[in-house]
Amino acid sequence: xxxxxxxxxxxxxxxxxxxxxxxxxxxxxxxxxxxxxxxxxxxxxxxxxxxxxxxxxxxxxxxxxxxxxxxxxxxxxxxxxxxxxxxxxxxxxxxxxxxxxxxxxxxxxxxxxxxxxxxxxxxxxxxxxxxxxxxxxxxxxxxxxxxxxxxxxxxxxxxxxxxxxxxxxxxxxxxxxxxxxxxxxxxxxxxxxxxxxxxxxxxxxxxxxxxxxxxxxxxxxxxxxxxxxxxxxxxxxxxxxxxxxxxxxxxxxxxxxxxxxxxxxxxxxxxxxxxxxxxxxxxxxxxxxxxxxxxxxxxxxxxxxxxxxxxxxxxxxxxxxxxxxxxxxxxxxxxxxxxxxxxxxxxxxxxxxxxxxxxxxxxxxxxxxxxxxxxxxxxxxxxxxxxxxxxxxxxxxxxxxxxxxxxxxxxxxxxxxxxxxxxxxxxxxxxxxxxxxxxxxxxxxxxxxxxxxxxxxxxxxxxxxxxxxxxxxxxxxxxxxxxxxxxxxxxxxxxxxxxxxxxxxxxxxxxxxxxxxxxxxxxxx
Length: 525
Fold this sequence. Notes:
alpha/beta; 6-stranded mixed beta sheet
């Protein structure tokens, strides 16, 4: 069946003005002072819903101008073997066709698309990601649970007063629940737990039956998930608790029992709501005036999780925040353009943690960037990647000198690196792993051909930079002329320099042998 047949386009909603999707203009109508160059877009490919937010940057302030959202329910298409079925992928692509029209013309460096729990879990995620990237003309980054939590906190923090109070933030998604404690714009504790409104409704209300027994099972299961963080979070404490995203927004609206005015969420009101939900008898019968039918289908799981969160963490009341993951993505993009990149802080923290020789790493970085400028891969994203790899290439020495490139690659691949997507983290780990000795061909195979070519080139440049700085005497690094080709690399040294540096000459010979093993030719003179 077609994507339209599987998931009708009429299900799309625009929360601001709510026009019919069929009337969306082919070219976005913007004011004269609202050019596309000032617009930013963030797309959140969630387990329950896909969301798009478009904002314009005016005097360093982000002003949202469009919000689109659709209940795609990708998590329902994930089977026991972690395979995402074709129906779920078709629903997702139908939604992204609409999003693609809205972001047309926005500079691609000002568009960020991230996948969360379902795409993290799906073994066949690339069968969805690759066509999605082609359709949207930008990368789809699958982010870790802790990175998702960090971005959620960033979005919530920017929607609140900058008062310095310690906050607890709770976000219940379709497949995971994020809990963060932070102050101002900085998270202190981040956690992503494997429980969500879609997965819990399917697991504990699988037969569609609503009963006290099913609710108790779901609540107890959530309590077990929360055991790992309960003690630490209670000890840290907070002065303000906030919830974000669609599930908590829906629960907040349903828990307005006091006719005298708006209320924050409380355990008492959540239990009142549970009693009302149980009166329906089955999930299919749930109906409230303020609740959309597709949200009603996953309400029991989300309600059970939030009750457990209140009980386990002993929350008094919880306010709703409009800010969430997609708003965090917007502020992250603007921050990167203003040189406030959290990835730089992450790299610096790793350097300190593993006691890396910063002077030597800086010389390797300098040489690598010099060589990179002589290749077709001098774009900012490649400059950043090779800079980070150069600074971290000796990470593994903190474990052992023997095979330290493997230790370093492992540490980087399996650490929580704030600000990095899974793909960026894998690429960085590969460069560190491949900066000496045998090339990690098996690791390269996990990337698509075009990306493999780029990573191979970056790896060779890093290897050369490390080789030329082996003596750790910066004045001995010559100005090398580099000619890059897809199947060969030529290096021209100052006349007589190699004769005066026999160790470098010998190392280049060994490097030529390593590259010859992968059918790549290294020439030097």
